[in-house]
Amino acid sequence: MKEIFDPMVLLTALGVLVAAIGVFVTYLQYDKTAAKSPKIDPQIIQLDYQSSITNLAHPGMGLTGSLTQIGQQINHNYGLTESQLQDLIKNVIKTLPNENEASQKLEKYIRLASEYKELAEKNLAGNKLAQEAQEAVTGGRLDEALALYDQSEAAWAELGEQAKAFQAEEYFEAAKILEFQCKYPPALLKIQAALQLAPNRWEFNNLWGVLLVDTVDYQGAIQAFQTAQTQLPNPQGVEAASLFNNLGNAWSELGEYAKAIEFYDQALPIFKKALGPEHVSVAQTYNNLGTAWSDLGEYAKAIEFYDQALPIYKKALGPEHVYVASTYNNLGLAWAARGEYSKAIEFYDQALPIYKKALGPEHVYVAQTYNNLGTAWSDLGEYAKAIEFYDQALSIFKKALGPEHVSVAQTYNNLGNAWRNLGKYSKAIEFYDQALPIYKKALGPDHVYIAQTYNNLGIAWRNLGEYAKAIEFYEKDLKITLKALGTEHVSMAQTYNNLGTAWSDLGEYSKAIEFYEKALSIFKKALGPEHDYLAQTYSNLGTAWSELGEYAKAIEFYNQALPIFKKALGPDHVSVAQTYSNLGTAWSELGEYSKAIEFYNQALPIFKKALGPEHVYLAKTYNNLGLAWEARGEYAKAIEFYDQALSIYKKALGLDHPDIAGTSLNLALAYEAQSERQKALVYAQQGMAIFEKNFAQLNPNHPDLLKARRVLAHIEGSTL
């Protein structure tokens, strides 16, 4: 027999029976620290507790007799058979040390019921408020629910020490709502208040951990989840599996994806054993595993896990459940990471109508899917279409969540990226500047989202030729990322990569290489030797060495990048094509123009297949082919490629993008080489006008603007 010394433990054991048949509802309804009960029929609350419990159950009857008498008195509310009732009683008695001791403790239990009678009567109003709050939650009226929970908590507070467990419960319920609304500071205050009143509730520590993840205190979150683990009623139950999942999420946020997978792998068999292989919790764990493998760059493996989650959700919840839509979204993200943007859009398009039907056309999940669609269309070079989706998302987020919600800020960031890709750098900066104060107010000054926005501002200022200003923003990004995530997080490596690019733009190629090598070391340790982030860093190193005139060394790095990209992303990914293009440029610089043209021609069909015939990457490749053919003295052929590039640029980016100016200058020089000075002059003037419009006011010494002036002066037969 299992010995029970603490009377409260005994009460919890008795609660197994009580929860099943509704006996002793006073205690269970109002002391939730002792046991969990199902929803109690309101009729039971109206029972005469003094007669039904204290008169019908007493130690002289013995434990079995007392429990039987209590059970029979109110069993009509539940309809248990006599044999079911007796089986339940026997199961409870088996957990007790002996009947005499149990009877003595039952007497104390009965006295507690009498003491709680007055408490129950006084708090019928408070309990009603809590029930109304729950109904408001079910109906999606979250602000109303919060107000009701506040009223209910105040009612419990008036009763003092006796009611602190119920007061804590209302704090907990309010914290859950606030967490869902991404209102993290008030949510933290609520759950802290709950923990002060009831520090041993695993659910409270679990939510505390979730909120610490939300606010980027991942180490603190891990400690909270570990504390919750020590408070679990069953260390091998579904609650334990849920905590394994949460621990996995926290480690994943720290960039420890392999460690996260270990925790998800611990959760999975528990869920399967306890709930069956087709339970939604199993599917959720498959989803978590998919995300972790995706973060490791194992997108094919991620897709396998998402594909395992999908049929479970469909069978358990139906084909139009939001979890099905969420899995479609995850699949879209994984396919997008593999460069299959059209396939990603197919999945987002499947998610969208489900969300609209299940949640309404103005739900935040609809907005998030619009954001995903915008990003996919942006990756396909359809920036104007992307902006349309981002604008739809922005409108919904503002209406549903308010103008200062983090999702609004995220959409401003996305809009900034799209406008930046269109060459509208000043407009991009405007959007980033709108995102920044929202993030600071909602998340505090040291959140990683602020770091990401600083990073975006750095890129935009770099595009404007303000390299020193770009570096300032990258260094702000670096400082926050270091504080929030530590020295070896992948986000640190990404920032090092960006700093390398900025220093490269300033002509400080040796300094750029130092930053790329720091990034390389982190990526290798965090993600392994075959992640596409590693390949991208090899590619960046190749470009830096190329700028130093070390073309052979550059080719070595591009050749290291190429097989990783092929293995991680597939042979038809845009990153593979980009590496072919980089190899072409390096060989061109070595005077191997035929070899360069071979690489450009390998890049071309991949770009066409992956991105369509009118993407800017295709235009860049046509431009490079033009340069290679021009270097071979084939000016007419070069002009053909420049014309193709120019046509795509104008359609994709508008008439004032700097890339159009660059190709116009190339055409000017090609026509000048053919002694067609009038045409050359027209293109040189066009290029000059575009660069003047983009850079003259913001940075009159931008290198592209200075180059345009030199070309125009050369063609006009004069020098500046």
TrEMBL record:
The source's superkingdom equals: Bacteria
- Write out the entry's keywords from A to Z: Membrane, Repeat, TPR repeat, Transmembrane, Transmembrane helix
TM stretches of this protein: 7-30
Q: Does the keyword Transmembrane apply?
A: yes
Q: Which InterPro entries match?
A: TPR-like_helical_dom_sf, TPR_rpt
Q: Where are the TPR repeats?
A: 241-274, 283-316, 325-358, 367-400, 409-442, 451-484, 493-526, 535-568, 577-610, 619-652
SUPFAM superfamilies, sorted:
TPR-like
The secretion signal range is none
Q: What is this protein called?
A: Uncharacterized protein
